[in-house]
């Protein structure tokens, strides 16, 4: 009976470790102060979506999100004043 408990405890620990590892890899960095972080998603070298995250003052124009996420992310940065 004790052997089963150890086996289940070990399995639960491995699952928890794998879950925390995968969550850490999928997290995006925090956007810069007074700037935009632009994440462009692509597959096979073709962009199919873009998401924008920013720490800009209120009433600042913002870029539009488009497409869908998934695939390979490419992260670029832009000042808040650059968006018109």
Describe the SSE topology:
Layout: H1 2-26, E1 35-43, E2 46-54, E3 66-67, E4 72-79
What does this structure look like?
With 84 residues, the protein is α+β, with helices and mostly antiparallel strands. The protein has a four-stranded antiparallel β-sheet with strand order 3-2-1-4, with no helix packed on it. It has one helix at residues 2-26, and strands spanning 35-43, 46-54, 66-67, 72-79. Helices cover 30% and strands 33% of the residues. It is elongated. The protein has one helix and four strands. The relative contact order is 0.20. The chain starts with a helix and ends in a 5-residue tail after the last strand.
**Amino-to-carboxy terminus distance:** 68 Å
Number of strands: 4
Helix count? 1
The biggest beta sheet, please?
4 strands, antiparallel
Average predicted confidence as pLDDT: 80
